[in-house]
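Field notebook, page 192. I keep forgetting to write these up properly, so this time I am using the form the group agreed on. The chain and the ligand, heme C, are recorded exactly as supplied. Prediction of the bound pose follows.
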Amino acid sequence: MKLKLLNIAMLAGGLAVSTSLWASGATPAAMLSNTCNGCHGTNGASAGPSSPTIAGQPAAYIEDAMKQFKSGERPSSIMGRLAKAYSDEDFKAMANFFGEKKFVRAKQPTDKALVAKGKQVHEKNCEKCHEDNGRKPDDGGVLAGQWSEYLQISLNEFQSKKRPMPKKMAAKLEGLSQDDVDALIHFYASQQ
Ligand code: HEC
Ligand code: HEC
């Protein structure tokens, strides 16, 4: 309990640790977002591997993802049920909160040959929208340094058409072999 309060106080930016913070209602976004830390890590930088890092993802992307989870448009193991507890306003507040944080790239083992192959596949098919090797916080979110287990699950969902994606992304993804997709995951996971 003490730790949680400390966290919130730090998030609020230099406020002294104080139980009165709960009563003041001064930091709704930070308080809301505290619920997410257990899985997504402190300030949204996930300790992995199955919960994605959400820190530093574009706010619009986070907000949209929460709405898609809530409506069931996007499949999930956890987030669909969780998102039902929040309003659109909450989504906006949390999205802005995490969007401003720093994306911390996960350190994870990768295969050199697959990374090299993945780089080529990326440049040809994905760079147009996921710029700067997937590092740029584009419409599709940051891919570089995301947990590979999560990327794998996401790409499977796209490939099986369970998760919506832009038509142009679908066209690119459909043209790839499973080996290409595996190489892409190594490439994104390799980046620091
Ligand atoms: C019990 C663990 C858990 C908690 C708590 C949790 N998440 Fe998640 N989150 C996940 C998992 C796992 C996924 C991947 C989708 C799924 O299977 O539900 C995910 C996915 C997401 C995504 C999509 C990221 C992307 O790159 O597309 C967003 C955004 C997100 N969560 C936001 C939140 C917010 C905001 C909260 C707090 C209100 C929260 N999560 C709380 C486990 C959790
Ligand atoms: C036409 C632009 C476009 C192209 C080309 C494209 N993407 Fe995307 N990508 C998007 C958008 C937009 C989203 C967000 C979809 C959503 O609303 O969830 C996305 C989402 C993703 C995600 C999910 C990120 C997350 O955090 O869950 C992955 C992984 C991904 N793209 C990989 C790829 C790969 C690999 C390629 C190349 C084979 C590719 N994309 C090509 C636009 C594109």
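OBSERVATIONS:
- Residues 35-36, 38-40, 50-52, 54, 57, 62, 65-66, 76-79, 82, 94, 141 surround heme C (ligand 1) (CB under 6 Å).
- Confidence is low (pLDDT under 50) at residues 1-27.
FOLLOW-UP: compare against the apo run.
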